[in-house]
Amino acid sequence: MTAVPVALRRRAEIVAADAASGPLVDTHGRVHRDLRVSLTDRCSLRCTYCMPEQGNEWLARTSILTLDEIEEIARVAAAAGVRTFRLTGGEPLLRRDIVDVVARLAAIEGPAGPVEIAMTTNGIRLPEVLDDLVAAGLSRLNISIDTIRRQRFADLTRRDRLPEVLEGIAAAAASPLRPLKLNAVAMRGVNDDELVDLVQFAVDSGAQMRFIEQMPLDAGHTWDRAQMVTREEILAALSERWRLTPVPGRGGAPAEKWLLDDTAHEVGVIASVTAPFCGDCDRLRLTADGQIRNCLFSMAEYDLIPVLRAGASVVSDGAPIDRAGAIDAVLRASVRGKLPGHAINDPAFLQPQRGMNAIGG
Ligand code: SAM
Ligand code: SF4
What we know:
By secondary structure, this protein is α/β, with parallel strands linked by helices. It has helices at 6-18, 67-79, 98-106, 126-136, 150-157, 162-174, 195-204, 231-239, 305-308, 323-336, 356-359, and strands at residues 24-25, 31-32, 34-38, 84-88, 109-110, 113-114, 116-121, 140-144, 180-186, 208-213, 244-247, 256-260, 266-270, 283-286, 291-293, 302-303. The longest helix has 14 residues, at 323-336.
């Protein structure tokens, strides 16, 4: 048993005193049920809107959370009412222990029952691991695909790997995971002539296409509002091909949805910039290096590393450190500090330091 320094002991006492019970409700009444878990900042692609081609500052490998640490945080979050864990990154399938991550998290039960495990991936490597992921308890998949044209894909992602992504989508389509969602960031002069083709591709794959307005989250800080294709423009392009009927009952979901003609097929639009949905946000984020973020755009992070890696299990008077209480207190501090909304449309908006690959999309 190792004695811990006074400062750490005091911190443990403070956070324990700060701990509460019940759901994670912020000062604006929003209840947090969804934790996005970034498993790595590494990626097999280099999408222009997310990562620079070169010169990215990677997180130190030693700072990346271990499987045990992720599970420990997830158990506390689930006890506080988080029901969905969405695994993301970077590219989550680059984690060698990805099947174990899914299995360990899927085994967690919260007050409302078993949690749900979802994943956002670029689809590369999916055929190799999908059966094991499903057996481990994965329940939903979102696969990102911004274009189905090979040269365009190579230009946009800086990697000529469209065939592997298509194989990943085919594997997902053949799996029991439903609904299967495909995500595309709509970009002017890049893929805005392909929106109808992408929706048709999704329909043919038994999937739902969702378009995302490009957000100022690229690691290179090169976002340009004029390059962003807006919700209105996306709907106008799709309306030329289909009659769009709004689907009611969005709840806290980021995507607004429409039915295509009178079919059961849906298309979604995530309009974070022109039609923010912050008022219904139920999401928190855990970065791969152990920081809790209460918003994609927040400047503050709430550090779990001192709690997780204190190097001692008891304080000097022999009392055990209440690690779960300390983790819970960090989650609650983050929720308490959540602002009513992001400020992308404010002239004084400042882009967060981390790129999307290091935040977890
Ligand atoms: N690598 C996986 C993937 O691409 O699906 C998971 C991580 S990626 C950061 C998660 C999602 O964020 C992807 O759908 C991606 O298109 C989206 N994304 C990344 N940068 C974005 C940006 N600047 N604006 C809008 N969406 C972005
Ligand atoms: Fe990688 Fe996903 Fe970012 Fe593309 S969007 S570079 S696939 S993390």
